[in-house]
């Protein structure tokens, strides 16, 4: 569309505003109530222009073909200046200081402090750890309110008061700290006036002198691109990158604000070695590494290489994981290496590989923008993947239908067309029930099933027994809801499945993934561009990558099987050694081997197993039974406290490399700071340990390690640091440097042996734990928004003010029966151990069910969890534990 701006023709897309046209013409007008990400409201009039003779607000006026816009003309210029001057007239003079949008605008328009008023003396709200409000600076543009509603989807803010008294306030009234705010920081980013800021940073003032480092968030698997602003070797602020491929200018409380741990007083800065006194004493690196090297050499000599095992970290980079698994295979000579994918999405890797051929999600996240029906299963993205959760919600508010399958009333469930609340551990029955309805009602893609899928007759036979009524009996989901959900998914043109640990962390987690994948196959909604396939919301920042890099006991980099001579041969040629040809130990098997006296060395990198692995008392026993435990950590975690050697590690803000996010994108990680004291990046530690054993692992830099990995694993061969520096993000598979990676998989054929999608005929089998008279309640465990896993990092940040304890959610009826009041301290007992939690009475959980997180080591939640695990992958059954409540103590 062509319009004329000050006599010059400019082309803008259909639907663009005059403001966009003005900017396209290279001109600027102030736009104080406008943010490109938000619905325009046209309230400040600072963007006034003349359109075909009339004065209009450019931000809300659509550009029409042939429109003639006048910007630089005395009269409209004066109107714009008047509008800004009017706004400033009620603000205190300091509103014009600093580098914020309003202050800059005033300088450009020649408006000085003499135009300011006195300020209304409305005071501040400094109650919140991350968001500060100076009411006197609020210009009531409403950008923060719209940001919170439209981008974050939280609706925590409102404008109150009339006329010039109007000011932003939490919708709940009262203090910001007590509001629904989830600290995404979006309001601070959009505020033009400095009314909303973050502590220590006056509006805009950070922009100038601070160093800026583009990196990728090291908390969850969303993979937000962040700009880290540093001053004097400290993080001053973290800003979401507007051009971040996944986050597009958005972030969450953790990536943005939870960096206080970096300079925590108890950060590990020197290696520690357990001395003759039995205490961990600081030593030099040489001494610590020599001790570990001796231990490894002795173990290999006396008990063979398989008496050494390592747990690699999904918090670490690809290059670090690559190097560590290479160390274990090449230097030690064992496949005993695993990562926390074992505890998390190993059933996804197994299930998706069996169904489709590859171990990752099937599509690119942006494709959810096209989906018309979202099926969100056993995932709580509003808390665990907040940037994804916000995007999903926006899609739903934009018209997509939403089915949520979760026993709890999680954040998204409030907006669901259908909320299915299965009994924990009954997913396979639920998914088979949905598939039954799809088949029974003909809501399937016959062509796709004929030409691109296998296994329909076997599935149909199993589904016969899964009538809605029978499924209702098993799952507790009313038959009518099941049918309604199946029809929504079955009739959608472009349905999407996103799922989480509510599917995988079960005794039959792999069956859960496979029977969930059945739904997409039946509908032809995977590998066809119709819909957004089947996508796990993978957890840790680099859990996808840790597995991609081969930090797994049965798989080499790129998922070649260690038992496959061809895959092994490829790695042997690159590494120049013979490799062990039998599977190594999985994490739970490592602990079992330790308890049995068969494991001599356990090297644990970035995992607080004593807090986060199931059946914690047995984990502690394993650590105590193993003669040499090494913990490579940022902090003296519960695991590190029990280790014989503690090696201080750098965190994601202090190192160089790459992560792979949940939709298979490689992105760069760059150091914004130096590690404290003598702490070193895991990359350097692995190299140094190899050197202490007289070995050279090659690949001296992270870039070289990724390049070498591409030679072992052709699916990554086209990805390099240089390329990522140029392109930002590249998804795998990406075998060639000159071609884009494949974000939408299987468009021509599936990667299974026969090229077909494999339907799975799996019957429902009950969970490992069941309630009985002794343990009458079912505990589900999972996440809360402000904290991250073991909490070692988020508890050392302002997040602890937002959420200071692990709460146990219980239904009012169960609370009444047990005589529990909100806030009571409770002792919870299972057949395996005890935990202490603080009661939170809520109808978010159903009667008979409890929910808690595991973010505070002191609560000992994982002492409750059983040793049951997925029969295929050993992923723990974290989601189902029978417990009882002990008398509350107040
Ligand atoms: N704030 C925050 N974010 C995080 C993390 C964190 O600790 N804190 N951790 C990261 C990691 S490592 C991971 S893996 C991801 C996890 O992200 P999610 O998978 O979203 O997290 P969870 O809360 O563990 O579990 C998801 C849901 O499963 C439901 N559920 C339990 N049992 C069943 C069942 O039988 N059927 C169904 N349908 N649902 C069930 C639970 O009620 C819960 O709401 O989050 C990542 N992001
Ligand atoms: N009850 C229950 N338990 C669970 C779960 C559940 O749903 N319920 N979920 C499970 C899941 S999905 C997961 S992924 C696990 C996560 O469990 P963990 O992996 O144990 O938890 P994290 O807190 O993510 O990180 C572990 C440690 O790594 C350290 N660290 C961080 N960055 C680095 C680094 O770059 N290098 C090194 N060397 N160390 C670093 C941190 O200080 C932290 O102590 O928890 C599992 N435990
Ligand atoms: S959504 Fe995940 S990746 Fe993004 S800022 Fe939050 S923790 Fe980091
Ligand atoms: S920016 Fe157009 S009216 Fe405020
Ligand atoms: Mo995880």
Q: Tell me, what's the shape?
A: globular
Helix run count = 29
Radius of gyration: 28 Å
Chemical compounds bound to the protein: ligand MGD, iron/sulfur cluster, FE2/S2 (inorganic) cluster, molybdenum atom
Number of E-type strands = 36
Main beta sheet, described?
Answer: 7 strands, mixed
Strand order of the largest sheet: 15-14-26-25-24-16-17
Q: Helix coverage percent of residues?
A: 25-40%
Can you tell me the CATH class of the largest domain? Alpha Beta
Proportion of residues in extended strands? 15-25%
Provide the number of structural domains: 5
Q: Which stretches are poorly predicted, pLDDT < 50 over at least 5 residues?
A: none
CATH architecture of the largest domain: 3-Layer(aba) Sandwich
The CATH topology of the largest domain corresponds to Rossmann fold
What is the overall pLDDT average? Answer: 95
Q: SS-based structural class? A: alpha/beta
| C-alpha termini separation | 69 Å
Question: Which key phrases capture this entry?
Answer:
890 residues; alpha/beta; Ubiquitin-like (UB roll); Alpha-Beta Plaits; seven-stranded mixed sheet; 29 helices; 36 strands; 30% helix; globular; binds ligand MGD; binds iron/sulfur cluster; binds FE2/S2 (inorganic) cluster; binds molybdenum atom
Can you describe what's shown?
The chain is an alpha/beta fold. It folds into five domains: 2-88, Ubiquitin-like (UB roll), CATH 3.10.20; 120-262, 2-Layer Sandwich (Alpha-Beta Plaits), CATH 3.30.70; 272-341 and 543-703, 3-Layer(aba) Sandwich (Rossmann fold), CATH 3.40.50; 346-536, Dimethylsulfoxide Reductase, domain 2 (3-Layer(aba) Sandwich); 777-885, Barwin-like endoglucanases. 30% of the residues lie in helices and 18% in strands. Strands 15-14-26-25-24-16-17 form a seven-stranded mixed β-sheet, sandwiched between helices. Helix 8 (318-332) crosses helix 26 (702-712) and helix 9 (346-356) runs parallel beside helix 18. It is globular, with a radius of gyration of 28 Å. The mean pLDDT is 95. Its EC number is 1.17.1.9. GO terms for molecular function: formate dehydrogenase (NAD+) activity. Residues 1-75 form the 2Fe-2S ferredoxin-type domain. In the C-terminal section; belongs to the prokaryotic molybdopterin-containing oxidoreductase family. Keywords: 4Fe-4S, Iron, Iron-sulfur, Metal-binding, Oxidoreductase, Repeat.
